Amino acid sequence: MPTSSDSSEGARRPSPTSVCSAAKHSSGDQEPILAKVEDGRRWWRFRMRTYDDNGQQDWWFAGTAIPLLAATLGPLANVLSIAALVSSWRECLVDPTVNDPARGYDPSVNPALCPYDGVSTLLPDLGGQPFDDPRWCYWLNVVSLILGFVGNLFLLLNFTNRIRYIVALPMTIGLWYLATCILIVITSCMNSYVAPIRPYQTYTQGFWYGVIASVLYLVCSMLLMVNMLGYFLGHYPQQFALTDHQRTLILQTMLFFIWLAGGGAVFSRVEQLHGATPWSFTDGLYFCDVTILTVGFGDLYPTNPIGRGLVFPYSVGGIIMLGLMISSLTKFAKELGSDNVVKKHIEKSRTRTIGRTVTSSMELRRRVEEHRPLEGAQPTISGPFDGVVSTTTVTIEEPAQGQWLRRAPTNAMASIRRVGSFAVSQASRGPRIARPKVILLREEKDRFDAMRRIQRGTAKFKRWYALTLSVIAFGVLWCVGAVVFWRAEQRSQQMTYFEALYFCYVSLLTIGYGDLAPKSNAGRPFFVVWSLIAVPTMTILISDMGDTVISNFKQGTFKLADFTVLPKAGIWREGLEKVPWLL
């Protein structure tokens, strides 16, 4: 039985956390030694860290970028799943205005019969008459939509810390995998057992929305599995380390897709009741997409005063929400480059500069002695002697005071370059290794100026690196998107690949001439998804060009104006003084 003294001693026994805290606050001349205490459970190669683990985190892309990407694509998959549910998946392309009493068939009454005589002209894809799907297809589609919504809800509660990571994330992954499997089963069975009869029947936009939704659910599930793998391997604790504007991006994305889907429902209902041509939900979704993205092909537009009046508030609200979302995406893209590539670049530059720096002649001699065995070995008595003697040149750059700052030096000498030659015997005739220049930094200010130069170089590298990634993303979306549209629109409007490139370019720049627009049931759903990715990418590209190409063009314009239309006082004299032989 423990005594009171034992219990008091146990109460005074410090925990590992308190030991580390006490070591941090210990006083004295000796430097405290902190031992890393690993929290969490271990099993085989897995180490699950606790929620409040503040240790070092890596796998930044898996821990931060993947959850944000899943939070962006998840609501989009829900919207596409709604479009797949409320639309029939098959349609008849026989003209309903043709009523042949001999056949005893009126296509406007029962499009499912859809007899075709093989001679009549068929309607285009967007003008077909849809007919009902089997009941099993409809109810499985309902289950898939519910699973997708619940999975997205678990992900949102995970972001807001309402449900634990270890509970919410597996639920999201499992539910989205189930939604994917159900959609794959529906589309496969539809294509195998009740497929449309070609050429007078075809799939509607709803079928292709279901296909794209299943792909997005699958991609999101696989990405979140990578995130969970990083947690099991101990790369980050069981929480999403998101900043405030990253959480704002998630909220803005969800609100934007709610606005998009709600607008599609409202406009399709208004056109069904008061319009000249009834719209489906997929038509309303496409119209809202081209309206918010300011593409405006003109192939689909409101035909009644109510719909035209709703365009005023809806377009303004959608464009504002799109601008806010693109602004948050731009900040996130800059963080993605700054936290990984740029920091590694600046650390590499600092390390390389420090490795080339000497502060005295003694250190210079030591550096030369280190180079000596690398250039060649001394000949031995028993070995043959090679009489070739080479000269190794060590170049030292000694920057002047204020050379890297835009001000005149005070008590500094001009930039000095000292060259010392050292005789080194060369035992081998192998290729010589290029040596970097040694930088001589005597004063503290010289070292400060060197770091400033590294910072300026890193800022320039960051701008051009972001522009390079934006150009690559733009090129991929342009060329790959053109391939898809070329294949999708080839039957409907005999589109060539060059015309597809032209169409994608006009859409990316939001010009929207209207001479080409998606007219197939597969092209319109793909355009909705592609444009929601491509137009923000184009906006980010223009922003990156403003920091690089456009900025340099402006500086060049100002310099040209100083010499021509807006001459600066004394500019010609300064130019001639730089070339004294002209005077």
TrEMBL record:
This is Potassium channel domain-containing protein. Residues 1-29 are annotated as: Disordered. Residues 255-333, 476-549 form the Potassium channel domain. The keyword Transmembrane helix applies. It is found in: Membrane. GO terms for molecular function: outward rectifier potassium channel activity; potassium ion leak channel activity. Belongs to the two pore domain potassium channel (TC 1.A.1.8) family. It is a multi-pass membrane protein. It comes from Cryomyces minteri.
